[in-house]
């Protein structure tokens, strides 16, 4: 299948592109210049994509450029991994957040509908306040910030779009980024792990497998779905398990000590029963996902090469 990944140099997009490239004809867009073509940590896709499948300098806010790319590349599916995250100042500012997280997905959906192309869109558990937890697709969203509202308004339930509400952790290109994992890897000494922050997300590697499953086995699935692990975990426990595995893996990396902290109470756990019933997919628990993540971290630390 010919698949276009938008936002292919971000935390999710680079993992989607490199993972899907083993089974599909994948193209990626990047906002800036084309990254170096080396099979090491400076290459977001670890050498998995040829140069003619990397579309650099694309401004997704330009509808004509986007329509031209769809016409030229002629994908059968588009995966939207473009988004402003709340860790960046722009993600907390109304105009850029709404432009990228709200308006763009609807514009893309219209172009995909015209072209007869399936679209996979990624939303966030931040559409919920976290006051209650164990949210289903039928629960009324109640975002508490600009980011959450912009993601909520960007959700699309009509064909040909499948919208996946989730949350992800993972490695970022060249080891730079503001996500939880890269932040933790950069720390030394002690860090706080919140005991009242509840999480049911996936690693980017596991989420890429979910997307591949949708593309290959559930071509007709549309609408809004929660994708999450059934094993709710606190941020303290998540970081503690990650730290323990990193220490056992050895190597020269210094691993920060995770100290329990109360922190704000926030339970954005999602229930994915409906998605499991529709697709037969059940996410693995955290031990399995963290084992895979630490293996990837170790490979990167040992020189940046990986084969999977």
UniProtKB/TrEMBL annotation:
List the InterPro entries hit by this protein, alphabetically. dTDP_dehydrorham_reduct, NAD(P)-bd_dom_sf, RmlD-like-bd
The answer to whether UniProt assigns keyword Oxidoreductase to this entry is yes
Report the residue ranges that make up the RmlD-like substrate binding domain in this protein. Answer: 1-297
Asked if the record carries the keyword Oxidoreductase, the reply is yes
| Pathway involvement of the protein, from the record | Carbohydrate biosynthesis; dTDP-L-rhamnose biosynthesis
Which leading EC class covers this enzyme?
oxidoreductase
May I have one GO cellular component term? cytosol
Summarizing the function annotation, the protein's role is: Catalyzes the reduction of dTDP-6-deoxy-L-lyxo-4-hexulose to yield dTDP-L-rhamnose.
Q: What is this protein called?
A: dTDP-4-dehydrorhamnose reductase
* Organism of derivation: Pseudofrankia inefficax (strain DSM 45817 / CECT 9037 / DDB 130130 / EuI1c) (Frankia inefficax)
Recite the lineage of the species: Bacteria, Bacillati, Actinomycetota, Actinomycetes, Frankiales
């Amino acid at each position: 299948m010919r698949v276009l990944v938008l936002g292919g140099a971000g935390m999710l997009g680079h993992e989607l592109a490199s993972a899907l490239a083993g089974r599909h004809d994948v193209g990626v867009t990047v906002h800036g210049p084309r990254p170096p073509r080396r099979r090491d940590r400076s290459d977001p896709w670890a050498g998995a994509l040829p140069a003619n499948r990397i579309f650099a300098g694309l401004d997704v806010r330009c509808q004509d450029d986007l329509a031209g790319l769809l016409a030229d590349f002629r994908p059968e599916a588009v995966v939207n991994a473009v988004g402003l995250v709340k860790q960046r100042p722009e993600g907390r500012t109304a105009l850029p957040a709404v432009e990228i997280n709200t308006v763009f997905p609807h514009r893309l959906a219209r172009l995909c509908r015209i072209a007869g192309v399936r679209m996979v869109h990624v939303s966030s558990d931040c559409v919920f306040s976290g006051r209650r937890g164990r949210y289903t697709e039928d629960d009324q969203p109640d975002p508490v910030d600009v980011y959450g509202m912009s993601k909520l308004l960007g959700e699309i339930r009509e064909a040909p779009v499948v919208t996946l509400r989730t949350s992800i952790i993972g490695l970022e290109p060249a080891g730079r980024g503001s996500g939880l994992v890269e932040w933790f890897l950069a720390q030394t000494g002690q860090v706080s792990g919140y005991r009242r922050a509840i999480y049911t997300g996936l690693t980017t590697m596991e989420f890429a497998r979910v997307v591949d499953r949708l593309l290959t086995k559930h071509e007709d699935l549309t609408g809004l779905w929660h994708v999450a692990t059934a094993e709710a975990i606190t941020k303290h426990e998540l970081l503690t398990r990650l730290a323990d595995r990193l220490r056992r893996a050895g190597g020269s990396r210094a691993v920060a000590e995770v100290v329990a902290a109360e922190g704000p109470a926030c339970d954005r756990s999602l229930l994915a029963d409906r998605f499991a019933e529709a697709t037969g997919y059940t996410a693995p628990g955290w031990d399995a996902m963290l084992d895979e993540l630490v293996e990837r971290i170790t490979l990167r630390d040992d020189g940046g090469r990986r084969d999977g």
